[in-house]
Amino acid sequence: MTRETTLRPEYLVTSETDLRDLFPPTHDIAIKKALPQLDAHMRDFLARSPFLCIGTQTPDGQADVSPRGDPRGFVKVLDDQTLLIPDRPGNNRLDTLANIVANPAVGILFMVPGYDETVRVNGKAQLSRDPALLALLAVNDRTPTVAIVVRIDEVFLHCAKAFRRSKLWEPTQQQDRAEMPSLPKMILDQTTGAPDNKAEMDKIDADLEDEYQRTMY
User: Who's near 183: CB < 8 A, 6+ residues apart?
Assistant: First the structure.
């Protein structure tokens, strides 16, 4: 049984003015660091990044965030204000793509394993099925069905504090995946029900791993 948490209204922050009154003024450098296009440092960072998270919104403002990953440098820089992101095979929910069609505003966080700093991009996105663009994103002779083309509004480096606090890359902080059930087991528990038979569940897990190998690209 769940119970809805009631927030005390007198403690809610409901305006930007009230919000900013709670914090010191923004440092001048934090404002100036936001660039309208990529520079050499940003290009170098993106060339090293094998992973990003992209945030989108539905027409009515419902937020969504989705991971994207590939070999390092998988996001192509078409020019200083334009990025090309492949859409690899997934579960075909198409949340990110449908959101972009309805609302082009996107926010992207680029990560590099071992780096505590990140790069943030805010801009507008479109979907393209241009064969010339898709050919740039081919892996194992397979091209994506569509590509996400992002026009950069602002790009900036984000400091290391969140990664330092989380110790995300420290080997001593790696957790044992076996402490939680497999992905198929959890999803089946949430939906149709997982089988009680261990051998049957093991086969479902093995089938997922096989699907990963066959359908990654």
Answer: 208
d(CA 113, CA 53): 14
Residue at 77: amino acid letter: V
Q: Nearest to residue 158, comparing CAs of 122, 197, 198?
A: 122
pLDDT digits (tens, 9 = 90+) for 44-57: 999 999 999 999 99
Specify the domain boundaries for CATH 2.30.110.10 within the chain: 31-166
Token pair recorded at residue 168: 């995300």
Contacting residues for 110 by C-beta, under 8 A, at least 6 apart: 45, 46, 49, 51, 52, 75, 118, 119, 120, 121
Per the listing, tokens 């990025």 go with: 83
Neighbours of 209 (CB within 10 A): 11
In the chain, count H helices and then E strands. Answer: 8, 7
**Residue type present at position 19:** L
The domain 31-166: what is its CATH number?
Answer: 2.30.110.10
Interatomic CA distance for residues 209 and 32, integer angstroms = 46
pTM over 0.85: yes
